[in-house]
Write a structure and sequence with these properties.
Oligomer: single chain
Bound molecules: adenosine-5'-triphosphate
Number of strands: 22
Order of helices and strands: EEEHEEEEHHHEHEHEEHHEEEEEEEEEEE
Strand content: 35-45%
Helix content: 10-25%
């Protein structure tokens, strides 16, 4: 069983801090939606408002067919009566209760017949590979096991919506990776609508069916991870998502000789006609810059500034004048500091942003260049 969530014009303030500013969000049936953003952007507040742990100032929240919050109509369904289950970053396990009782607690509250409740607890213990741990106390478990108990507790009551607030952030890197796969399998198996909060972009990109990127209480973009990565809707999203960080540099659109050019301090590149002359910001992913070791016609010379090997690839910084560009290089090139290199950028790989407000500017007719090599001059 799964359900949808509608958030309409939600605002939440804490004194002078506006944690959420008129947030609108439609969460689809069965999707794994990840709220991503820097610390303080409001993602936990949004999740807690859906859970009923915070009371918004304005707006509406509808879970399935139930309006759980409506500021105008004075509706605020208490947390326990909303059809949602939540896993917290701290796991929030009862230290004085065994694993068995921690998992079963919600069922005892629901006054489920004892036999049925016991079966449900046994089932989730088995499901999550924790048979035999039921008698232990949380302090007798590893971080990964505690995390699993928190998930088991969520599963036991079978809520139609899962809310998860950074559930993996207390685990070490390897365990976190394993648990990501487990949570994905769980979602694949159960298909329960899930809203998941993280500040870790890798976690968001690897787990989400859609990512909501937030900043300063506002939603910047809602899209599939691939779109968020390749077509960021704002400079904020472009710079927040991607490691190493996207190369962003001031640029100008100029018209000359009947052609349209994108001019930066280190390269000038012909782009399709369509944009008026203006100043903007150009952003290019490190893997969208191709490195050449020999001079190429029409390409500018850079010097290798630093080489940062990282196992299967190396991050190469190249410098010209005061500008440093980051390149993701998958070939095992033996590069030396200060060696000359030449770079190529393809127009379709460039995203353009408004100089003042960082909103995306479409370079629409770039499509005709897809797949072609267009060196800059
Ligand atoms: P983090 O990743 O650090 O948890 P977040 O994106 O989840 O950050 P929130 O916890 O939602 O951000 O906080 C949003 C803003 O609201 C922040 O400025 C925060 O300081 C403020 N805030 C959150 N909870 C409270 C509270 N109970 N009292 C006062 N201010 C709060």
């Amino acid at each position: 069983m799964s359900t949808t969530i509608e958030v309409k014009n939600l605002t939440k303030t804490y004194g002078k801090v506006t944690a959420l500013k008129r947030v609108n969000l439609s969460i689809e049936l069965g999707e794994f939606l990840v709220l991503l953003g820097p610390s303080g952007c409001g993602k936990t507040t949004l999740l807690r408002c859906i859970a009923g742990l915070e009371t918004p100032d304005e707006g509406q929240i509808i879970v399935g067919d139930q309006t759980v919050f409506d500021a105008e109509r004075g509706i605020a369904v208490p947390s326990g009566k909303r059809k949602v289950g939540m896993v917290f970053q701290s796991y929030a396990l009862w230290p004085h209760m065994t694993v068995y009782d921690n998992i079963g607690f919600g069922l005892w509250l629901q006054k489920l017949p004892a036999k049925e409740a016991r079966k449900q607890v046994d089932d989730v213990l088995k499901d999550l590979g924790m048979e035999g741990l039921g008698h232990r106390y949380p302090s007798e478990l590893s971080g990964g096991q505690q995390q699993r108990v928190a998930v088991a507790r969520l599963l036991a009551t079978k809520p139609p919506v899962f809310l998860m607030d950074e559930p993996l952030s207390n685990l070490d890197a390897r365990l976190r990776l394993d648990m990501r796969s487990e949570l994905k399998r769980l979602h694949f198996r159960l298909g329960v609508t899930t809203v998941y909060v993280t500040h870790d972009q890798t976690e968001a990109m690897t787990m989400a069916s859609r990512v909501v990127v937030m900043n300063a209480g506002e939603i910047q973009q809602i899209d599939a991870p691939r779109t968020i990565y390749h077509k960021p809707a704002s400079l904020f999203v472009a710079e927040f998502v991607g490691m190493p960080r996207i190369n962003s540099l001031p640029a100008q659109v100029v018209r000359q000789d009947g052609k349209t050019w994108l001019r930066t301090d280190v390269f000038t590149l012909e782009i399709p006609a369509g944009l008026s002359e203006q100043e903007l910001t150009a952003a290019i992913r490190p893997e969208d810059i191709t490195l050449y070791l020999e001079p190429q016609s029409g390409m500018t010379e850079f010097k290798v500034y630093a080489v940062l090997p990282s196992g299967p690839e190396q991050y190469v910084q190249v410098k010209k004048d005061d500008r440093i560009l980051m390149i993701r290089e998958t070939r095992p090139l033996d590069l030396k500091m200060d060696q000359s290199v030449w770079i190529q950028i393809k127009p379709p790989a460039i995203n353009l942003y408004h100089k003042e407000n960082g909103a995306a500017i479409s370079m629409h007719s770039t499509d005709k260049h897809d797949g072609e090599d267009v060196p800059y001059s």
